[in-house]
Hints:
This protein has a single domain (about 1-180), classed as 3-Layer(aba) Sandwich (Rossmann fold), CATH 3.40.50.300. Helix 3 runs antiparallel to helix 4 (about 105-125) and helix 4 (about 105-125) packs parallel to helix 5. It has five helices and seven strands. Helix content is about 40%, strand content about 25%. The relative contact order is 0.23. The longest helix is centred in the middle third of the chain and has 21 residues, at about 105-125.
Amino acid sequence: xxxxxxxxxxxxxxxxxxxxxxxxxxxxxxxxxxxxxxxxxxxxxxxxxxxxxxxxxxxxxxxxxxxxxxxxxxxxxxxxxxxxxxxxxxxxxxxxxxxxxxxxxxxxxxxxxxxxxxxxxxxxxxxxxxxxxxxxxxxxxxxxxxxxxxxxxxxxxxxxxxxxxxxxxxxxxxxxxxxxxxxxxx
Length: 186
């Protein structure tokens, strides 16, 4: 099962995702947290510390994977007893795209986005459940600089591909999960 949760900054996405993990994980399962953030400034450092603190006081015992890049390198470490929270796709894509000097070339960006998508597909197949958190960044129009344009284009592509693959897609708004897609079992 794949659940995709997107929303604006501070919309409650992570909290909603953690609640889903808690609902899905059973006694024989293990909860995994793939954290993709890099410390880039003081605000990000504080957010990472806050998330780590919240996980340490959570009813679930999380196995945390600090994976700001190269998601594909860990996909085969999971099995059908694993419930995975990937937080967040937006950071992962930004870290991948801006890791080298080719961020301004669309074909390079597309290769990296495709690698992320394939890793997500594999995680979804290998695990009991994969819950993916991402940001909605598409409300401010088309950016003028090439880097931001390619980033938003690739993030939009990934969102569409993942929602197509997902069993459930949720928009987090003010802490409320708004279900946008739910695949029913036949």
